[in-house]
Amino acid sequence: MLVFAGRRLLQAIPILLGVSLVIFGLVHVAPGNPIDMLMPPEASPEIIAQMKAAYGFDRPLHIQYLLWLGRALSGDFGISVFNAAPVLGQLMTALGNTLVLAVTAAALGFTLGIVFGMTAALHHGRWPDKLLSAVTTAGVSLPHYWFAIVLVLVFAVLNDWMPAQGMGDDSLPLWQRLDHIVLPVVTLCMIPMGVIGRLVRATVLEIMGQDFVGALSAKGLGRGPVLRHIIKNAAPPVLALMGLQFGYLLGGSILIETVFNWPGTGNLLNLAIFRRDIPVLQATILVLASFFVLLNLLVDIAQAAIDPRIRR
Amino acid sequence: MPLDATPEPPALEVEGLTVRFRKRDEQEVCAVNGVGFSLARGKVMTILGESGSGKSVSLKAVMGLLPGFAKVEGQVRMAGRDILSLPPAELAKLRGSKVSMIFQEPMSAMDPVYTIGDQIAETIIQHEGTDRATAMARAKRLLERVSIPSAARRLKNYPHEMSGGMRQRAMIALALACDPLVLLADEPTTALDVTVQIQILMLLRELQAELGMAVVFVTHDVGVAAEISDQIAVMYAGRFVETGTLRGVMRDPQHPYTRGLLSSTVHGGMRKTLLRTIPGNPPSLAALPEGCHFRPRCAEAVAGCQREPPVVRGETGTMVRCLHAVAAEAAVPA
Question: What's the domain count of chain A?
Fold first, then answer.
């Protein structure tokens, strides 16, 4: 098991390197130049060249990459081209804001998905199954930006029940601003709820159809212990999907953060793209991609801990 | 035991066992139709039949393991106690302790994400409430009992880490965990290599004699049946068509189907002769032929076979469900 975890950890290093290369390459292949965005059109070529040198954009690309990677590894992501503030600070604030949303939405979505999926599977073919399957299917098929707008309309515009914009007054502690989180979390939990619910139902049904479940009853185990066996068998695929879903949530949904004006990573990415703010863009994607890789690494290890057949 | 005590009731007694399956919008199917037998402690009865004849369903019905849409009628008595009428929780207490089952495919019948030791210990803890250490120690002795080498290490193995024969031994150890009175074996050797098959059969025979279990052994393999049984019941389309002692049925089969089964089995003395097979296929349970269910495939069928065949009972529990058996009996001079 330790060997497996160590091997997986080592395998993550080339993946991360590749990711950094792709990010750097893509950002530089994309059209548009940050200096051109910043400078007034009438700026002299000398000044433009001076600015490029200040940001290091005049060096050869591979040198730029190595410099960027070296600094990034020591936690220095440079300064924003747009507002000259350190990238790290902006990124951490945005990541914190998105984490609040992502963790709450994941907790709610996963819990509902598991409960709905289990209930549907245990009542296979009867009305709770049909009802919950309709709910989870709706969760994956409703466009969530549309759902967000409907929520805003009903809870914030037509009735003044919930705030629909931003995170509230910064001077108040987080727990007094919890009402701001409700609508975005409800919107964001729909997809995890739907996909997890459907996967749990399908996996549990498949496992319940296997011979060993009958054999467990033949050993005289009651409903509870048999259910424990089923859950342990169903856990690995569900964990894998949870890892992916949580990764998506961490990336912050650009659409949802735009609808709710939530200052998270999605918002930051969106702004950085429009401003051609290469340092911010690179840093954000790199950090998010690293989170994604590490998350899936953890999921792999958890899966192997549960199911010995994965360890090989 | 005083001499005038009532005789010990049979370990397993089945009477008029009938299983009907009915799913919504589907025609009712009778998979097992009025099966009955009685098995004393320390005896092995083999149910011999083709796939789809209702052998496995009968075993599951005895265990109360059939799904909710199966309608089970009849009586199953274990050591004189009717078990089908027990509430589910009481029946669960008997399963795995008084009556155990071993399955055809040990790989799929064991939970892949628990170790062998855990799976055996779990049964012991469930039925006897011992602590884990005691249960594990007993699991180790059980693995040794079924001749699994380095048992202590094997306890920590997962099913996929063992060979097929080893897994089947582990499954037998699991079934024996709580000293059952009755062991139900559902084709336990079918999925194994022939050399491993004979080892498992000998192990079962040895354990059965030593522990005095009553064993119901289901197989389609006449050779396996000959190896292990005391009694044989031949099953066709949900019914027993012939029952008797191993010797009686093998030497002097009465039912044409039994004769067909025996003559379609390959053995050494048949070199250079054409293998005789039973023509046709077993009937669909949804569309059983009227009268004797074997009639369409039977070389000896006569007009009278379109009526329900008579049940001819001999001494010592033999039974034949065939019109010709009546004639044969009548021909025997009194």
Answer: 2
